[in-house]
Amino acid sequence: MQGNKGVVIGGGTMGTHIASIFVANGHDAEIVEPDEAARENLEAGVIAAAHEIGLGKSLGNVRVVASIDHIDWSDAYLLIECVPETLSLKQEVFAQLDKTAPRHLPLTSNSSGFPISRIADNLETADRMVGLHFFMPAHLVPCVEVIVGERSDLSVVDDVHAMMDQLGKKPVRVNKDIPGFLGNRIQGALMREALALVDGGYATFEDIDTVVQYSFGFRFVAAGPLLQKDVSGIQTLFASQSTIFPTLDNSTEPGPTIQRLQAEEKFGMRSKEGFYRWDDEKIAATKARYNRDLQSALDILRDQDI
Question: Angle at the Cα of 136 (from 132 to 121), degrees rounded to 5?
Fold first, then answer.
C-alpha cells in the first residue's frame, strides 16, 4: 500500500467501526461527518473500537472534518463511503469524489445492497470504483466483500482486495455486481424461511433463534456450509433438498410479521421493541455480551489462520 491513511465518508456506526480498522493497524483515518453533534465524540468512538479489535499495535491518528472539501488527500491510499443507504445520496457523494479525489485513489462504497455499478453510473472515473461491503460490527466481523462493478478496473479490484488482507480482514471477491452480493443474499434466504415458519405458526421467535444459534449456526465458526456438507456427505444433502425444497417459502415480498413491525415502527433496540421487547439495561447487557462473544469467535478464527 502506498500511503498511510484511509478516508471514510460518513461517521455513523459503520463509518466509525471501519475507520477503527485503519487505526488499529497503526494507520491514520480521516472521517467526513457533516453533523456537528456527531463529530464531537467520533474520535473517541473510533479509538474505543480500535482497542476492541485487539491487535496490540500502536494506534494511528484520527482526523474528523465536516465535508469532502476539507479532506487532506496527502498520504491517502483508500476511500470508503459509508453514508446512509439512499441511492441518490451515494450517487451525489461519488459524483463529487469523481471530480475531487486524486485519480490514483480507489473509491469504494460500503453499500449493503446497491450495486456499485448503479452508484458509479455515468461517472468519468468509474473504473476506480469498487464495492466494499463490511458486515456489522465491521471492526469485529472478519469478512468483507470486494465487488467488481461493470466498469471496475480489475487491477483496482485486486489492489483493494490486497489492502483488506493487509488490514487483517478476510476479503472475498464477488465477480458480478448483483444486489445483496453474497452474504446478504444467503442471509436473506435464511431470514425469509425463518419468518415464514413464524408466520405459519411452526415456531416462536425464541425457537428460531435457538435452533440457528445452537445447531447449524454453531458449526459455522468451524466450517462454511459447503465445506460442512463435504464433511456430512453430499448424498445426504441431495436427499434432504429433494424433500424440503418443494415446501420452502418463495415469497417475493416481506411477510406479515415484517410488514407489521415496519408499519408499527417497531425497529428493534432503537425503538425498544422489535421481535423482542427492550429496556436500556437489557440493551446494554445484550450488546456487551454480543460483542464479547464475537471477540471470542474472532480469536478462534485468527487461530485457524496461523
Answer: 30
Count of C-beta atoms within a 10 Å radius of residue 241: 11
Phi, psi for residue 13 in degrees, rounded to 5: -60, -50
- How much of the chain exceeds pLDDT 70, in percent? 99
In order, the DSSP letters of 223-287 are --HHHHHHHH-HHHHHHHHHHHGGGS---SS--HHHHHHHHTT--BGGGTBSSSB--HHHHHHHH
Residue 101 gets which letter from DSSP?
S
Q: Confidence class of residue 147 from pLDDT cuts 50, 70 and 90?
A: very high
State the alpha helices, DSSP H only, in 111-224.
116-119, 154-166, 183-199, 205-211, 217-219
- In order of their start, the domains of the chain are 5-174 (3.40.50.720), 184-305 (1.10.1040.10)
Can you give the pTM of this predicted structure?
0.93
Q: What is the DSSP letter of 59?
A: P
Buried-state track 82-111, b at ≥16 Cβ within 10 A, e below 16: bbeeeeeebbebbbebbeebeeebbbbbbb
| CA 245 – CA 240 distance, rounded (Å) | 8
Cis ω before 106 (30° cut-off from 0):
no
Per-residue pLDDT at 298: 92
Q: Is 147 helix (H, G, I), strand (E, B) or coil?
A: strand
* Strands laid side by side in the 129-134 sheet: 62-65, 28-32, 5-9, 76-81, 107-109, 129-134, 143-147, 170-174
